[in-house]
Amino acid sequence: MKESHENAYAVYLLTDELLHIVYKRVPYIDLKAAQVIVKDRMMLQKGKEMPVLCDIRQVRKVDKPARDYFALEGSLWIRALAFLVDPPVTDVISSIYLGTHAQKVPTKSFIKKTEALRFLQYQESP
Amino acid sequence: MPNSDDFRVKRIHQLLLEMARGNFFYSLEPEEKNDNIASLVVMLNMVNEELRDSFIHQGFTNAHHTPQYMIQLSLLLDSNGRIEMVTNNSCSLLKCLPNDLIGKPLNDILSKPSQKKWNQKLPKLLKKEYHETVLKLEFVSSKGLLLTKDCNITVFQNLNTKESKILLDTVFFSKGEPFPKEKAANKLMVTKGTKDHKVRLSPKDIQIMRDVHDMIINNLENDLPRLKDLALQMGTNEYKLKYGFKQMYGITVFRFLTQERLRQAKTLILHSQHSLKQIARMTGFKSITHFSRAFKEKYGLPPSQVRR
User: Fold this and answer.
1) How many domains does chain A have?
2) Of the candidates B39, B180, B189, B289, which lies 20 to 30 Å from A10 by C-alpha distance?
3) Per-position DSSP letters for B213-234, written without gaps between them
């Protein structure tokens, strides 16, 4: 079963195995944006914990209140998280985020989508 | 040329200089490009934000020893959005003289996205005789650094001419001047007779406190062992854990656990279909009564009202 959703900041694609979130090119993501992004993700998942693939290649700025929100309130119902990045800019964004916030679940950044998917699959059934 | 590497590196130097002076409130404009300099800009902005927050945080947890200095940015605007008055502090923040600002439209010192926001907001602001709101704006200093802040905007009427005026103000924190030498600490002590448990923390102790912090966040549904046992488990002693944690995070270990449980509960109340009873259980509360009381204490509303 596939389900999709879109808001001003991201496009979501929900399959049986995982949730794919592709961030859009917006000037920056602040707390309000982060709250919308998390709210819509939770609405789609309906309480089901699952692996999430976050394509942040178009992101250019996520401010600190937004980063903190993603790390605390925004981490519910995520079993494993893979960031898809495009070095050097989004690679730096994900490195600083991962380096300054404790991760509840296995989280890693990837340049190749296939590797990101493999990582998420491996977390499911090692 | 704003896009040349020389120009971009110069901006980076400016920001680093401000950081060296203890001014963490500036930032660099994010770039469209995806090259090494753009990644450095992103990194600097993020590191700057982390430093700024830990600095202000220290101010709250450890007020007696932290030098803290506030800089107020205030502008008085006429009904066309032109600057009528500026304070000296605003000029030093924006790196210019009062004459560079007075008579100019506010748009001259705003970034492009903020100009758009301001142009949309201004006519709406002026519809009422009196109005107060908060607007996040990005100012651009004459050196090209960004100052982003939530600004209080107050619209009022001149007593004589009945013309609308706008007061825009916000506050920045800087390392600035330390408190005077005479013991400010004693004046700040609110509770009579409270003993100041100051623990000397080694880098290893600091890492242990951070580990305890992260462990709590990652295991909200589990109860904590007794402080003594937790300390042993983490390789420290009860005294250090009790007062060291409070010193670093401004809150006791157990209150921190409750605070983070409530934060998670609030997200679940807002965005999940679980019943309040289920949420209370999922976030480690023993009874719904205890949960509701703690929730109301923190957020001012009972959980049932937040759900609506």
Assistant:
1) 1
2) B39
3) HHHHHHTTTSPP--HHHHHHHH
